[in-house]
Amino acid sequence: MLRVVVLISGGGSNLRALLEATRDAEYPAHVVAVGADREAEGLAHAEAFGIPAFTVPYSSFPSREAWGDELLATIAEWQPDLVVLSGLMRLLPPAVVEALAPRLINTHPAYLPEFPGAHGVRDALAAGVAQTGASVIVVDTGVDTGPILAQERVPVLPDDTEHSLHERIKPVERRLLIDVVRGIADGSIGLGAASTP
């Protein structure tokens, strides 16, 4: 059974979808802890599912590196096989990425390498493209530049707003995340070749 720690910053909708998937006795992974970099609404999902939660507040540390050191130490206490970034709106320090790689994955609301960064949905609309998508990647020390594990196209409709487009991407992100975690757990998706140089 794959041991997963999920890190969030906000509402945790991907987290909830993953927790719901793990209710199935056939699903080969379980979430052992949920962490956040602030008091996040999504921690309520952990409570609802009886999952331990922790907070390592970014604002409590003098530097990103000091915060990262404490976050890494706290994650290590749970001995996860995989760490999932699920709406963690903060770049991890390189030392944290390197310590966890390649067992560190993230979802992104675009068809990478198109539209990386914090505003993938807005950037797709601004570019006037006919389609965008969702991706699940291995996290590296770049911005959304890691190896792609799964992705799927989502059409952009003529009357789409950033909100409406994002709302149609989110279910695809959730499904891809659940499938990728399952694939990592059952060995059909390998991470070995994705290690940080």
Automatic annotation (TrEMBL):
The record marks 144 as: Raises pKa of active site His. Signal peptide: none annotated. HAMAP family: PurN. Catalyzes the transfer of a formyl group from 10-formyltetrahydrofolate to 5-phospho-ribosyl-glycinamide (GAR), producing 5-phospho-ribosyl-N-formylglycinamide (FGAR) and tetrahydrofolate. It catalyses: N(1)-(5-phospho-beta-D-ribosyl)glycinamide + (6R)-10-formyltetrahydrofolate = N(2)-formyl-N(1)-(5-phospho-beta-D-ribosyl)glycinamide + (6S)-5,6,7,8-tetrahydrofolate + H(+). (6R)-10-formyltetrahydrofolate binds at residues 64, 89-92, 106. The keyword Transferase applies. Belongs to the GART family. The gene is purN. N(1)-(5-phospho-beta-D-ribosyl)glycinamide binds at residues 12-14. Keywords: Purine biosynthesis, Transferase. Its EC number is 2.1.2.2. The active site is at residue 108. Residues 3-181 form the Formyl transferase N-terminal domain. The keyword Transcription does not apply. GO terms for molecular function: phosphoribosylglycinamide formyltransferase activity. This is Phosphoribosylglycinamide formyltransferase. InterPro entries: Formyl_transf_N (IPR002376), Formyl_transf_N_sf (IPR036477), GART (IPR004607). SUPFAM superfamilies: Formyltransferase. Pathway: Purine metabolism; IMP biosynthesis via de novo pathway; N(2)-formyl-N(1)-(5-phospho-D-ribosyl)glycinamide from N(1)-(5-phospho-D-ribosyl)glycinamide (10-formyl THF route): step 1/1. Pfam families: Formyl_trans_N.
